[in-house]
Amino acid sequence: MSDYTISVDWSGKDALADSDAAKVISGSDFNTEFTTVRTAVNSKADLNGDSSEDFAIDNGTVAGTFTLGGTAVTSTAAELNILDGVTSTAAELNILDGVTSTAAELNILDGVTSTAAELNILDGVTSTTAELNILDGVTSTATELNYVDGVTSAIQTQINTKSPTASPTFTGTPAAPTAAGGTNTTQIATTAFVTTAASALNAAAYPVGSIFTTTVAYANSAAVVAAIGGTTWVAFGAGKVLVGLDSGDTDFDTSEETGAAKTASGTSGSTAADLAAHTHTGTIRYNSGLTDNAGSCAEDSVGGQGTFHVTNAKTTGSTGSGGGHTHTTSTSTVQPYIVVYFWKRTA
Question: What is the value of pTM for the model shown?
């Protein structure tokens, strides 16, 4: 836009002599001057505005109300200066078209360091002001808020389905990793771990060759295996007692050696000479004052036991068959007992 400058020196013509041809005002002078005026006027903006006119203001001052597109601009210079240095495109600024937020609401963004990509996360958000206001005063960091990224249902509902870490009560069939054999910690012992440990314990308690004593009538080897482990068991020692091995006794110096019987029988007796007729001769003592059939007795004093009389020697009579004889006996050798089952582990 250019300023108007007088092209013809009108006042200079007055000083010229009347005889000077330049003193005459010609139509050319008027044409030159009005052309200059027209050029200057045409370069100025219409004060009433015109949508077809584009113009630039350099160091301009607006007096009264400044109107843009029919809307009065009420922003102060300080508020408009906030846009100083903004690199947003017209398309990006047009995003604000239709925004009804107040200056106070927009000022909430003052100091926001979010990138355009981060703010674009809000694109399509249908939350109400009340719902967004729930975030008012939130001090969570972006990292903390990102913890809920991907959550598809109520977090509390999900938490309520979990067991507490202190004294939990499980339902259903909970599973846990099985510890290695021999583990001795506070780790949970699964049924698999216990089964393995029990089998190892039984194997140690009843190695191959061991004797298992029980009052339970197991039907077969498989029943014994199910009860105490192992692989193969056989019934052992039916009708016999167990005796510790004695290497110094030939009857007991070999493992699983058997012998003896429940009864012992034999014959005893004497010869004919042993049972021939014979007599016994002896001295008989009587109390004082007594007599025997043989007559009077000589007095014999025995200290502390009273007065006795000693008879003459007496001979007893005896009869016998004069022949030998025998006695046949059968004696039980069974000790007091209680019956149990023996099983021997063979594998």
Answer: 0.37
Radius of gyration of the chain measured on its C-alpha atoms: 69
Residue in the block written with tokens 């249908």: 126
Locate the domains of the chain by residue range.
Answer: 207-259+332-347
Query: What distances in angstroms separate CA 223 from CA 22, 197, 230, 320, 344, one per listed residue?
Result: 147, 20, 11, 69, 13
Those residues with Cβ within 8 angstroms of residue 244's Cβ, 6 or more apart along the chain or in another chain: 252
Q: How many C-beta atoms surround the C-beta of residue 345 within 10 A?
A: 24
pLDDT tens-place string over residues 158-175: 888 888 889 988 889 999
Which residues have a Cβ under 8 Å from the Cβ of 268 and sit 6 or more positions away?
326, 327, 329
E runs forming strands in 150-293? 211-214, 233-235, 263-270, 280-282, 285-287
CA atoms within 13 A on the CB side of 258: 8
Parallel, antiparallel, or unpaired for β 298-301 and 280-282? Answer: unpaired
